[in-house]
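Quick question, first post here. What does this chain look like in 3D?
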Amino acid sequence: MTPAARRPGALILADGEIFEGEIAGAEPPGGVTAGEVVFNTVMSGYQEVLTDPSYAGQIITFTYPHIGNYGVNDADFESRRPFCRGLVVRDLVTTPSSWRAGGGLEEFLVRHGLSCLTGTDTRRLTRHIRSAGAMVGA
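> Answer (accepted):
Ran it through. C-alpha cells below.
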C-alpha cells in the first residue's frame, strides 16, 4: 500500500486549542480520528509504543522530532497490531535508514489504517497537555 499525498490537517483539543500540520498515513474513517491525546518522550522504540496495548484508544504525541528513521521490522512489535488511534510527530521520516527495516513507518500506518499529523509543534502540544492535563482531541 502506497501512502497518499499529504494534505493539510489539524488536531483540535477539547479546550479549543488547535495544532496544525499535514495528514500522513491512512485517511481516517469519516476524515476524523479522535482519542485521548497523550505524549511519549522516547528517542527510539516508536514501533513498540504504537503496538503497546496500554495506548489503546489514544493519540500519541512523540516529543522526539524525527520519527520513522529506522522503519519497522517484524522483531520489534509488542503485539500483532497497533492499539493507538493515531500519532502526532514533528517530522515523519519517509525513507528508513536501517538494515533491519522491513518497511517504512508511513506504509505501516497505511496498512493498519492509522493517520499521523506531521509538521506539528510537538513541544508546544506536550507543554499544553502537561499543564492542562490529558484531554480528548480530534
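The first strand starts at residue 7 and ends at 12.
The mean pLDDT is 90.
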